[in-house]
Design brief:
Blueprint: H1 21-29, E1 48-49, E2 55-59, H2 64-69, H3 76-88, E3 96-99, E4 106-108, E5 115-117, H4 122-139, E6 143-147, H5 149-156, H6 162-165, E7 170-174, E8 177-184, H7 187-192, H8 196-214
Parallel strand pairs: 2-3, 2-6, 6-8
Antiparallel strand pairs: 1-3, 4-5, 7-8
Helix pairs in contact: 1-4, 3-8, 4-5
Length: 215
């Protein structure tokens, strides 16, 4: 349709390069207009870490700090995740971390007030799917750790419920590849929990399952 903006198509597919590895993907993602979220976000926040990582961690979307710095998992939830990974026996420096959605979605109670996280829709996550598929194809991880419901639905479909399958090793076809996955909660939910210690212990227990799966 003439005059139709690319974001109205809700797919990142036209923006994803066919070759060049992670550097090419990261450069191209800067200009992604695959959904309307790019309009309000400061910048695209692409995945980061070891290009040959054995484990890929997939979260929901960048938060406020990630949006400002342009890197995933650099805020409080990211620091908690690094701590839990290290305790579980997974070196955070040898992992690859990314999000199902690459732009920060937020709302404001009032102009110039703090930006409040707003969960992306399934349509927005699906629009960003080609980026995640490209990251998986390049990194080829042995294991995917799924952090929270949005990431789980983006990878495994709308019927995914993190409470049903957390801490278990799943085998599913994801974007044409047979993958092993361990779902758990998003570390930000630990920070919001009434009993933060118990929530952290649950996350740590799930990550230990991932560590054992990696051998």
């Amino acid at each position: 349709m003439a005059g139709k903006a690319p974001e109205d198509g809700y797919t990142a597919e036209p923006f994803v390069p066919e070759r060049g590895g992670l550097p090419a993907l990261r450069r191209a993602a800067v200009d992604c207009r695959g959904c309307p979220l790019h309009r309000d976000a400061t910048q695209t926040v692409f995945g980061a870490g070891d290009a040959h990582a054995r484990v890929m961690l997939v979260g929901e979307q960048p938060g406020d700090q990630e949006d400002r710095q342009g890197k995933p998992f650099v805020g409080p939830a990211g620091r908690l995740l690094d701590r839990a990974l290290a305790e579980a026996g997974i070196d955070p420096g040898q992992a690859y971390v990314t999000n199902a959605v690459k732009h920060f979605k937020f709302t404001r109670a009032e102009p110039r007030k703090r930006r409040i996280h707003k969960a992306p829709t399934l349509r927005e996550a699906a629009a960003c799917g080609p980026w995640l598929a490209a990251e998986l194809a390049v990194v080829e991880p042995e294991l995917i750790v799924v952090l929270g419901a949005t990431a789980g639905k983006a990878l495994l479909g709308s019927s995914f419920r993190v409470t049903r399958v957390r801490g278990t090793v799943l085998e599913e076809e994801i974007h044409g590849r047979r993958e092993r996955l361990v779902p758990t909660v998003h570390p930000s939910s630990v920070l919001r929990a009434d009993d933060r210690e118990a929530a952290y212990d649950g996350l740590l227990s799930d990550l230990k399952v991932a560590a054992r799966a990696l051998g």
